[in-house]
Amino acid sequence: MTMTDPGAPLRPCFGIDVVDLGNPRTRGRHLDRRFMTRVFGPAERDLVSAASDPERAVWRHWAAKEAAFKAVGIHRHPEAPPPFEHAAFEVVDLDETRGTLRWRDRDLDLRVDVDPGGRRVVAVAGLDRLHPDITWTGADLEGTSVRLGAHDAEALEAMLGPREREAARGFAHGLVRLAARTEVARRLDLPPERCEIVNAPGPAGRTPPLVQLDGSLCPDARISLSHDGPFVAWASWTVSERMGGS
């Protein structure tokens, strides 16, 4: 089975990104001319400058670009995605929650959320459109680990499959895999231990995570993952209960 089986339902291409707004690196970057020129085109810089909170607008746009790159990576897989240049992904418009981003001749549908406390921003991007069955979550690391019973690194490792442990680069990276896998299994009405979130072959950070079922690629599910500081975020899509619980 492949991600592009003839006659299969359209597999959406989407990505997610979370930014920790409490990190000192997020301060004052809208005033850093070199940074702004490298990351944003002239029209985007105008959008940021016109925002009610330019500092926060920088990271809403940044998260949108990162999410869009992941969506393109899913679209191109198993071919390698293009080198990631932030300026190649142009935010065309973006209000408080919705917008459009352009990559080459393709538009991506955006959803952006800043949590009420202003601690994090989460962006989700879908190539051409965001499929209505995609769900996404932004959560704090500590609360997610307690909810899933992964109280420390040892407990988390015991809950991950062999390839997940191999792919995980640190606690947050492993935890977001466990969270996404738990959600995908629930939506497919399967025991979580039958699923794994693994890395596609290729350079680290340049290939999308894949869902495996019983050791084989699962074409009925797609996911995207992100983590930054004390936050994790994941987006998932599944073909509705096609597999059943057998």
Concise synopsis of the structure shown:
This protein is α+β, with helices and mostly antiparallel strands and 246 residues long. It has helices spanning 33-39, 42-50, 54-76, 141-148, 153-159, 162-167, 171-187; strands at 14-20, 89-94, 98-103, 106-114, 120-127, 135-140, 195-199, 209-213, 216-217, 221-228, 231-238.
Structure description:
The chain has about 250 residues and is an alpha+beta fold. It has two domains: about 120 residues, 4'-phosphopantetheinyl transferase domain (Ribosomal Protein L22, Chain A, Alpha-Beta Complex), CATH 3.90.470.20; about 100 residues, Ribosomal Protein L22, Chain A (Alpha-Beta Complex). Helices cover about 30% and strands about 30% of the residues. It has seven helices and eleven strands. The strands form three sheets. A five-stranded antiparallel sheet has the order 1-5-4-3-2. Strand 8 and strand 9 form a beta hairpin. Helix 2 crosses helix 3 and helix 4 packs across helix 7. The longest helix has 23 residues. The chain is globular and about 50 Å long. About 45% of the residues are buried. The N terminus and C terminus are likely disordered.
Mean pLDDT: 89
Report, as a whole number of angstroms, the end-to-end distance.
18 Å
How would the global form be characterised? globular
What CATH calls the topology of the largest domain is Ribosomal Protein L22, Chain A
Name the helicity range: 25-40%
CATH homology group of the largest domain: 4'-phosphopantetheinyl transferase domain
**How many beta-strand runs?**
11
Main sheet makeup: 5 strands, antiparallel
What would you call the structural class? Answer: alpha+beta
Secondary-structure element string: EHHHEEEEEHHHHEEEEE
